[in-house]
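Form 7-S
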Amino acid sequence: MDLVKYLILFSLFTSCAKTSYLVEQGLGQMSLLSKAEWNDKLLKDKKVKKKHKDKIRKIEAYKKWFYEFWGREETKIYSKTTFLEGKAVTWLVISSPFDEVKAHEECFPIMGCFPYLGFFKKKSAMNYIEERKEGGAYTYIRPVYAYSTLGYFTDTILSSFFYYEDFDLSELIFHELFHTIFFAKDEVELNENLANYFGKELALVHFKMNDHEIEKFRSKRKRNSHLNQVVAKLALDYNSLLKQSKPANKSESDKILSEFLNNTFNKNVLETCLKLKIEEKNCYPLKNKWNNASFAAYLTYEKKMNKVERLRELKKLDLKAFFNYIQERYKEFEKTSKEGDFSAFLFDELENKNAK
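Output:
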């Protein structure tokens, strides 16, 4: 289906605002594709910097290794490269009501629902933020350096990738490529956490780290995971506080938020960092600007990460067997489940074990 037919189909089922958004996003995506050049051509081009050619070659190598590792046929993803005007490719925006920590969902026919919107133009992102603020919502915005179109288009290498060092670059590529071999519909949170987990694990395998290096890496990840759990719990505590307080407007919510951050959040986070031997200057939650939307964003992308790791430990499976297990569970879910979501279905054994 070409882009024009795709947008016409959406316009039949969506509001004017959503149609305008989809058109802008479609044009932005097409702009990325139209500016893309085949990697082979760029690697021969004397005008392209050597450091950029080196990155392209590494990404191609990571891609080749990824599909060989999983025994899959290579796709055309990352066969071309697009040079961006700035560092970020898009801007992600999450909004949340003033009286609850909950990401506002935007739903589209065929594609499903998402707890965020992405904008190719920062100006459009800021306009959307202003609209949400006028309605009393909290907002959160961050730059995005990589994303997957989930097969709707053939993704290209973006020059924003080039800012990553080798290990982090491989993790990024493995993360994005993971979306090409597994994607659960309407499960943004789970999809991101699975891609995060497998991206990190694959990077360890690819770079053939020794036991000491792996233990050091996992020890750091375990500390961060513990800190993430504390932040997630505090976010949920704050949400409970909001529901109990029932603020009538954003002004009242601002006061509740300020008191919570000053009297509870910052104190607990700092104590956790010190216990984990993380210096205050490296205690990242203390540096973030928190509100209902940023808490919602955090919960969307972080809170199930630990569950993925614990599920693998429970099943005692190697990486490939663990992936096969997830695939089989998803097939079973699609055949038998009529209610609930795949996340609950996948982690039910883990939850039952914790309940005992």
